[in-house]
Amino acid sequence: MKSKHKFNLKIFISVYVFICAFIILSLVWQVLKEVIQVFVPVVALIIAWMGLSTWKRKLEGTDEHKIRQDLLRAVYNYRNAIQSVRNPAFNFKEPPERQNVRDEYERRWNYAEKVKVELDTVLVDAEIIWGDKIKEKYNELITLSRELLGNIHLHLLGSKFDYSVLFDKFPSDSKDTTGENNIFTEKLNGIVKSIKEEMKINK
Length: 203
Fold this sequence. Notes:
This protein is mainly alpha-helical. The chain has a domain at 71-198. It has five helices and no strands.
């Protein structure tokens, strides 16, 4: 009888321990579920934020690269248009009259102004990235082009003008004064170079 009682007591203790363990595990699981329900959205939010930050940095880098390329292309195009205005060669079949020369300069200058519109458009985005410094370089470029325009007017009026500004080479001389030998061209290329340096372009 005593042996049977001990057996029943062991069964009772085992059942009791099992029930207690089950209750504790249930409570722990319930707490874990609540923690997970709170923690998972937080982790997801952190991962999403990190992904968004990475995407934003990549997008900003892509945008900056595109604006840099667009601005440099526009600067090169404007430089080339200005140099085209300075070309002393006129393709006239007959000796040019003053009006013919005036019309040719007007055609060339109008094209340069058309190219300048593209430069002005890109400059707005470039200022956001590189600030006032890039606008200062742009103003130097425009000031130089206005110097050329002033000499065109003097030339068309028959007044004294600066050959080294108006022409990329002297019509009366076979010596080519482009590149480093021409002061205006030196200034023009110097401004273009400074714009590239402002955008951290080394080549």
